[in-house]
Specification:
Elements (H helix, E strand, L loop, with lengths): L1 H26 L4 H5 L1 H8 L17 E12 L5 E3 L3 E2 H9 L7 H17 L9 H21 L6 E10 L21 E4 L3 E2 L6
Antiparallel strand pairs: 1-2, 1-3, 1-4, 4-5, 4-6
Helix pairs in contact: 1-3, 5-6
Length: 202
């Protein structure tokens, strides 16, 4: 019993030390060790232990994104009925506004899913890795769950539209006086392909 307990303790300590070392190499600036073992570090960290520095040095948003979704349903007579666009971002914004303790889900889930999607997909929206496929399914399932929670009716496909509008910098000049206002930058609209929605989320 003592030998087995001792072995379990040693194993837990070893795994803990390896985990701390892998996470440290992941977040540390590039160095010879992290570059030499980058493959092993990446395999250990993703997808469950992703780290970033935003907790300590938050990066303010420079772009407002409106993520909308619409659905398609095949009716009994064979026609496809497409819904109007449903603003997913507005639902999250309304849940956060005037809420003293907004949940992490309403604040970050949809936004982080979209950020991860853009990092892993090109402009053609084709996934080129297993992680990209996983993030695509994750984003699709979030959108499908949000639409199903606020709209009635069955649907078999879903499509996302993301409208991005840069946030203008504070309009101040020398001496603290307001500077002349500039015209807002044009918005960028990205429409994703239709994705099939299945009951099991795959």
């Amino acid at each position: 019993m003592r030998a087995g307990l001792g072995a379990a303790v040693v194993l837990c300590l070893a795994v803990s030390l390896i985990h701390v070392l892998m996470v440290f190499l992941h977040v540390a600036p590039p160095n010879p060790v992290s570059q030499q073992f980058s493959r092993q570090v990446t395999a250990w960290v993703y997808p469950l232990f992703e780290q970033n520095w935003r907790l300590f040095a938050p990066e303010p948003e420079s772009i407002n994104r409106q993520i909308s979704a619409r659905t398609a349903h095949l009716t009994a007579d064979g026609t496809v009925r497409v819904s109007t666009w449903f603003d997913l971002s507005a639902v999250d914004d309304s849940a956060v506004e005037h809420n003293v303790f907004p949940s992490h889900t309403t604040q970050n889930m949809l936004r982080r899913a979209w950020t991860s999607y853009t990092e892993l997909h090109g402009s053609d929206d084709e996934p080129r890795s297993e992680r990209a496929v996983m993030i695509q399914k994750y984003l699709r399932n979030i959108a499908a769950d949000r639409v199903a929670a606020h709209r009635r009716g069955a649907f078999e496909s879903i499509q996302l539209r993301v409208t991005s509008l840069p946030i203008a910098p504070p309009a101040t000049a020398n001496g603290g006086r307001p500077a002349a206002r500039t015209a807002p930058a044009p918005s960028d609209i990205r429409v994703l392909p239709w994705w099939k929605v299945t009951p099991d989320g795959n």
